[in-house]
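Hi U.,

Before I forget, here's the chain from the pilot set. I'm dumping it here mostly so it's searchable later in email.
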Amino acid sequence: MADARPGDDVHIWTGEPSRATRVAYAIVRGLILVVAKLFGRVTIVGAEKVPAHGAYVLAPVHRSNVDFALTALVTTRPMRYMGKDSIWKSKPLGRFVTMLGAFPVHRGTADRDALQACTDIVTGGSPLVMFPEGTRCSGPVVEELFDGTAFVAARAGVPIIPMGIGGSEAMMPKGAKFLHASRLVLVIGDPIPAPERTEKGRVPRSAVSTLTAQLHEELQALFDDAQQRAGRPNPPR
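Structure:
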């Protein structure tokens, strides 16, 4: 199992997860599923589109703190997650989420170490979750995306799996400390393949930008669909 160091002496695993990690992940995922069913009667649409093997980047919209947990429901495979670096200020919490596959990203910076860690993870054959809006947003419009998600997928040559999440903002909006009952729907889109490389084995910057634009369009459509299914339709634009 290879390690990467995305700063602050935090190690992540980039190969097959250990047995302890798989067991811990399965337990936590089971608890998330129970809560999502009790509070949100969660429905997953298009789960068959998530690859059963190999690496990919799962790219969901981000409207609530619960989105991080909900992504685990689309597959039983342990996935890796980027998390805000403040989580690691608590050593016990930091060690726990690290064991589950999370690693810190310093928001507001390019954080080359985190992007390299992302690339190492998918190159090593593991699935990765990246929120392309970069941070939790609010409202019906998918905000301008950062190129990081497309960059990692293109560089590693893996597909992006876009996902809309409906009802999560109503369940736990910004500032809320507790969950509110709200119908939850996860809608998974068709995989978006990585762009072709040039004869020199490079991915043009223009191809990354085009991939980001395509992802943005797909995410908006999936978010609208998920909100509609959750009974909270986005207003027409």
